Every structure is written in structure tokens, then in C-alpha cells.
Amino acid sequence: MENKNSERYLTFALGKGRLANQTLKLFEEIGITCEEMKDKETRKLIFVNEELKLRFFLAKGPDVPTYVEYGAADIGVVGEDTILEEGRNIYEVLDLGFGKCRMCVCGPESAKDLLLHHEQIRVASKYPRIAKNYFYNKKQQTVEIIKLNGSIELAPIVGLSEVIVDIVETGSTLRENGLQVLEEVCPLSARMIVNPVSMKMENERITKLITELKQVINKEN
Ligand code: PRP
Predict the structure, then answer these.
(1) At what angle do helices 203-220 and 18-29 cross, to 10 degrees?
(2) pLDDT tens digits along 192-213
């Protein structure tokens, strides 16, 4: 009898940009390719590998856990920062080993004392949930959190906030703006996430995929 499950498309939501490119490179190493996705000029939003019954689409990072929670994508690849910030009902199944960076509290050196003495400071961040969890639950420090959408490093420079909670990769944005890492919140990297129902219904295919990816990742690290 024909296996019905093997006929169903597995759908992947990939966070747009560098993460998606690195994901596709990793997938190629286990024989999963998507040629039409490599065309830089294309305005197409969804790409299919008919042979393997796979579909891929690119989404804004913060939307990836949303697609996966609702089952519009079975699998997603996105940064741990986004997973923590979105707080969606999804399974986090694999650390892909790339996109490594850190979530940090940053600011001018003068802000060190404010943190040390648990002053009621202002904290600007694109990640209000992560910032709130860090200050309220981990540090037991009452702060005012201000949500921004980008160029977070501006905030302490122009006097919007005393510190920021943001991603630090090379540290050059901080350095070039006279700021520094004051505290580390957590390390980050790209993760694979799975819809809980898909994990049950497509367990065999998804488990195989995870096992194969793990082998490649372990070899590379
Ligand atoms: C991210 C982050 C920092 C920068 C860190 O910003 O918010 O600004 O990268 O990288 P670095 O330590 O290597 O300098 P992104 O470029 O994503 O843009 P954004 O300011 O719009 O968030």
C-alpha cells in the first residue's frame, strides 16, 4: 500500500537573509536542494522541490515562529533571539551551529554603576520580552523598557535610554559608537523549530532530517 504521508509536502519557513543562505548550504550537504531559490532576481515567494516533496518560503525572522505555530510551515529556521522573543508554541529541535552571537546589555562605561546598584534605568531594545525577563526575573531589577525597531545603539547616545539589550556579533557596532558590553544575557545561534502536530504526523521524515543534519553539524564543529 502506498504511504500517504510521503505524498504530503513538508513546508519550511526560513528567516530571510544570511540565515536562509546558510540553511540552504547546510541542506545541500544532506542532498536537499532548491535550485529556483538561488535565483537572486526572483520575486517568487515560495519554492518547490517536487522530487523530495518539499516547499520552502522566506519570511521575516519574527514571523517564522508564527508560521510554524499555526502549521502553515512544518519546520522553521530562525535565530534563538526570535524564538525567545516570540514565545510561540513550537518545538525547538536543533542547534544549527551557525549565526552565533550573544544577547547583551550594552551601554557606555558610565552605565556600569547604574546596573550594579540596580537603579531604575531605561532599557531600549528590539527584544522587550527578553529584556524584561532578564531584568525582572533574573536580576530582580525594576527598569523601564522601551521598544525600538532597529539601530538600537542610538538610544544611549542620544539619551533615550541608559542601556540597551541587543545582539552583539563582532562588537564593531558597539566599538564604533563608544559603547561596550556590560552584561551577557545569553548566547544565540540559528535553530530549527517544528510544529508540534507535524512532529507527530510526519515524525519519520522529520526525525530522519534532524538525524542527518546532526551528523553534518557534528562533523563541521
Ligand atoms: C544587529 C544588532 C547590532 C549589530 C551587531 O543589527 O542589532 O546592531 O547587528 O553586530 P556587530 O556586533 O557585528 O556589530 P542589524 O544589522 O541586524 O540591524 P538593526 O540595527 O536594524 O537591528
Answers:
(1) 100
(2) 999 999 999 999 999 999 999 9
Mean pLDDT of the chain: 94
Asked whether the predicted pLDDT for residue 177 surpasses 80, the reply is: yes
SS3 184: strand
Q: How far is the CA of 103 from the centre of ligand 1 (A)?
A: 11
pTM over 0.90? The answer is yes
81 lines ligand 1 (CB under 6 A): no
**DSSP 3-state of 156:** helix
pLDDT band at residue 51 under the 50/70/90 scheme: very high
Contact criterion met (CB below 8 Å) for 181 and 107? no
Q: Which residues, 6 or more positions from 37, have their beta carbon under 8 angstroms from its beta carbon?
A: 24, 47, 56
Q: Are 98 and 25 in contact (CB under 8 A)?
A: no
Q: Can you say whether residue 87 is alpha, beta or left, with left for phi > 0 and alpha for psi between -120 and 50 degrees?
A: left
Ligand 1 lined by 128 (C-beta under 6 Å): no
DSSP state letter for 201: H
- Shortest CA distance to 195 belongs to which of 180, 181, 205? 205
Q: How far apart are CA 92 and CA 172, in angstroms?
A: 30
- Measured from the Cα of 166, ligand 1's closest atom is 7
Give the integer Cα–Cα distance in Å for 30 and 177: 42
Does residue 149 have its Cβ closer than 6 Å to ligand 1? no
Whether 132 and 144 have beta carbons less than 8 Å apart is answered as no
